[in-house]
Amino acid sequence: MNSVTITPSDVLEYNFCPRFIYYMYCLGISQHEGERYKVVKGREVHDYKSTVNKGYLRKKLEVIDKKINVYIKSEKLRLRGEVDEILFLKDETAVILDYKYAEYKEKLFTTYKTQIVQYALLVQEKYDVFVNKGYICFTRSDNYLHEVDILLQDKQKALDVIDEIFDIIVNETYPKATTSKAKCLDCCYRNICVK
User: Fold this and answer.
1) Sign of the torsion angle spanned by Cα atoms 191, 14, 27, 42
2) Do 177 and 17 contact (CB within 8 A), yes or no?
3) What is the DSSP letter of 34?
4) Contacts of 173 (CB under 8 A, 6+ apart)
5) Are residues 129 and 92 in contact, defined by beta-carbon separation less than 8 angstroms?
6) What is the pLDDT of residues 76-96, one digit of tens each?
7) Which H or E run includes 136?
8) What is the DSSP letter of 53?
9) In this structure, are residues 152 and 159 in contact, taking their beta carbons and an 8 Å threshold?
10) What is the pTM of this model?
């Protein structure tokens, strides 16, 4: 069990409904997310943006180095993921830049911040650098950049959620379903989930 790691997407699925983790990790039932349009389109955007370097943040943030599409796996955090961009700043901190194939809707969804915080944990450990900020680029809103503060309590909450997820995986605990029944209507596991 020590080698099992989860992804920020798994954390998002857990937040959508904890039973996703049970079905995926305890029963081994895939949700076939690769077939969903937004997932496929998002991957295309990620591939495209890696060929584009606009330099928009470099000047604003005094970026001294940049890494693109960095896969990080941490046995300690039990977490893995590919960070779109890591910007290393002159003040010896780093920021996360994440691209979304989405429109900015005048508010930041919790899912986006959750993902940024997970990436911050991975980057901090790999590069031994403090991460207290991230940016989300909304590609369907003319590449609008939204700044995200990452607080210590955000990081602790992220670690707590990872613990909760591994409690389900290790103990094969069948968790309570989400209390939002509206989510069940669009759930890929709705036909097998015990209500």
Assistant:
1) positive
2) yes
3) G
4) 22, 167
5) yes
6) 999 999 999 999 999 999 999
7) strand 130-138
8) -
9) no
10) 0.84
